[in-house]
Design brief:
Layout lengths: L1 H40 L1 H4 L3 E4 L2 E5 L59 H17 L27 E2 L1 H14 L4 H10 L1 E2 L10 E3 H12 L2
Antiparallel strand pairs: 1-2, 3-5, 4-5
Helix pairs in contact: 4-5
Length: 224
């Protein structure tokens, strides 16, 4: 009986010691080492790839945002969002957020449409989005043709929060952005070119433009 109690006590003691050691190693030392390494070597990425403007964090380069005008009635949940056409617009998004110029940005949900390519509702959304893109990007002496509207201008990404648009969609918006901000088209064109990233490692993915980074640069250019 005494041997049995002694063996049990030794086993319990060994288990507690193992628990304590593993807690310290795995629960304290390892997280501290990983965090320290990440902060030292990948500081920007470890902190969420934040983008700052005027000394304030306005978002992450990894998460798309909307650029809408304030609601006429903030309490009206049914009021449709109206794009603020001074800014480059992102892809259609199922994620909800505020204008990046207003730093009170919060994500409520994200996700894909989960509609097939021939779904009548999706076709209607795409056709409506194309008409809106053409109407919104009308500028003096320029009206986009339906064939000028790239796919990413009328479809959301799988997450609904893609932070990038294609160079084609950015180019489509240049004249409107220049007109709304009293800038020359060449100035805005140069801005887009400066913020166009090529394929990763030269062969993966497609050329892309980060909308938040582009709009931060636009804000600096206009001084607004």
């Amino acid at each position: 009986m005494n041997n049995s109690l002694g063996n049990t006590a030794r086993l319990v003691g060994a288990g507690l010691r193992a628990l304590l050691v593993l807690t310290v190693v795995v629960g304290v030392l390892y997280p501290l080492a990983v965090t320290g390494f990440a902060q030292t070597v990948f500081n920007d990425k470890a902190n969420g790839s934040e983008i700052a403007s005027d000394g304030k964090v306005v978002g992450s380069e990894l998460i798309g945002q909307t650029y809408d005008l304030p609601k006429k009635d903030p309490s009206d949940a049914e009021e449709a969002a109206r794009p603020d056409l001074k800014w480059f617009q992102p892809r259609p998004s199922n994620g909800l957020g505020t204008n990046s110029v207003n730093t009170q940005y919060s994500i409520v949900l994200s996700g894909a449409t989960n509609r097939s390519a021939d779904n009548p509702e999706l076709v209607q959304w795409v056709e409506g989005a194309r008409k809106a893109v053409i109407a919104d990007n009308h500028a003096k002496g320029y009206t986009p043709a339906p064939s000028d509207v790239p796919p990413d201008a009328v479809t959301s990404s799988g997450s609904g929060l893609d932070p990038h648009i294609s160079p084609q969609y950015a180019d489509l918006q240049v004249r409107r952005v220049a007109e709304k901000n009293d800038l020359e088209v060449k100035q805005v064109n140069n801005l887009v070119e400066d913020h166009t990233d090529g394929r990763t490692l030269g062969f993966m993915g497609e050329p892309r433009v980060n909308v938040l980074q582009l709009n931060v640069a636009l804000k600096e250019l206009t001084g607004k």
